[in-house]
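Database export, one record per block. Field names are fixed; values are copied verbatim from the stored entry.
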Amino acid sequence: MRSIIVAFPDMTNAHKIRDILAMHDFPVRGLATNGSMALRFISSEDGGGLIVCGPNFPDMTAIQLLSLMPDDYDILVLSSSGSMNMGYEHQEGLYTLTLPLHTQDLVASVRMLLETRQMYRNTMRAVKPAAAQPTPKGPQVPPKRSPEEQRVIDRAKALLMNRNNMSEQEAHRFLQKRCMDTGTKLYDMALAVLKSQEL
């Protein structure tokens, strides 16, 4: 399983988050009080992972930390809505949860981020490079979804809206962004979101 690093300037917050994750059997590999410390933990881990942190450290912001990390790491920023910088929602590999939040919201979000990235890694291993295919000319029409697929996507959006206080548009954007980050279809991502809630 991918590793988790918890990083907050206030070690009390780091311990609280670590304890919640440990109670749910997540592998927390280290606690950091600044971005440089988080990067040192990352350099000693293989296989990627997730950093759960606040938006700012004494030495850098979460966005700056993201730019210094390898691609197989994601960041989950926990922050009050007033302290979030504009642009966080447009950063690939960076996800946010607004405080205050319930334990089950944190656990479900961490599980979803770990599982969807793992699903992507497994898919990439299974796919063999194919010979380059010529690009078809003309507009590409996406395949139509079945009613069942649309229901699953709608349920996943509703779950994100309730759990993370998102609007429908924000929930849809979150799913789309996660699909782009992992190379997964929207329906498969919606299933992963729903599965993360069941566990």
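Remark 1: Residues 120-132 have pLDDT under 50 and may be disordered.
Remark 2: The longest strand covers residues 73-80.
End of record.
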